[in-house]
Amino acid sequence: MARIELDAVTVNAAGNPARTILQVARLDLTEPRIAIIGANGSGKSTLARLVNGLVLPDHGTVRVDGLDTRSKGRAIRKSVGFLFTDPATQLVMPTAAEDVALSLRRQRLTKAQRREVAIAWLAKFGLDHHADVSVHHLSGGQRQLLALTSVLATDPTVLVADEPTTLLDLRNTRRVADTLFALPQQLVLLTHNLTLAARCDRILVMERGHVVFDGAPAAAVSHYEAIAA
């Protein structure tokens, strides 16, 4: 597993450096499955985006396996994949195969080879029969699995999933969740689904830009339910 370290981190609001939106004294994340829960606006997404350099701290340091997000952002983005809530923000090519092939563009492969590898990746998640289907004709669950496939094709060490089941029905929530928990990658999961969070090894509870609880799933869920009551 990767080691994700946040040390004396502060993130201020864009355009308003006097307003702090996230403050973390110290975090050392090494568990295979880590959940981050909290109300909307609590700082979950900001914390997650620090991990792969989508957000840089105004003060303090964020490191992934010793690499600082400030100076080694490109290397970190190769090792930390990011899955967004809405797959529409990630699926940029017309068809499923083309979207996965785009993720393979840095590999020294011919166009035909990229397509072959892309279809092999789609097959891992039961999407190979939709290789040439428009991404707009896929179901919500299929689109989220396709977005996940495109991320995994880059071979990340860590996967950050930002509320990946929020827009899905129950069946697709289960399908996407089971897929995520079966991956070999270290998973950092942001979710409002406390059942999913409880499947993780460790949970961080966020409130008003701070980590207010950090520990075992059952205790963390109880803490969150108490402060949300």
* Unreliably modeled segments: none
- Per the CATH scheme, the topology name is Rossmann fold
Question: What is the H/E order?
Answer: EEEHEEHEHHHEHEHEEH
Binned strand content: 25-35%
Strands ordered across the widest β-sheet: 6-7-8-3-9-10
How many separate domains make up the residues? 1
CATH class: Alpha Beta
Helix percentage: 25-40%
Overall 3D shape? globular
* Main β sheet profile: 6 strands, mixed
Mean pLDDT: 95
What is the radius of gyration computed over CA atoms, rounded to a whole number of angstroms?
Answer: 18 Å
| Structural class by sheet pairing and helices | alpha/beta
**CATH H-level homologous superfamily name:** P-loop containing nucleotide triphosphate hydrolases
Distance, first to last CA = 35 Å
Question: How many strand elements?
Answer: 10
What's the helix count? Answer: 8
- Quaternary state reads single chain
Provide the CATH architecture.
Answer: 3-Layer(aba) Sandwich
Any overview of this molecule?
The protein is α/β, with parallel strands linked by helices and about 230 residues long. The chain has one domain: 3-Layer(aba) Sandwich (Rossmann fold), CATH 3.40.50.300. About 35% of the residues lie in helices and about 30% in strands. It contains eight helices and ten strands. The strands form two sheets. It has a six-stranded mixed beta sheet with strand order 6-7-8-3-9-10, sandwiched between helices. α6 links the parallel β7 and β8. α5 packs parallel to α6. The chain is globular. The two termini are about 35 Å apart.
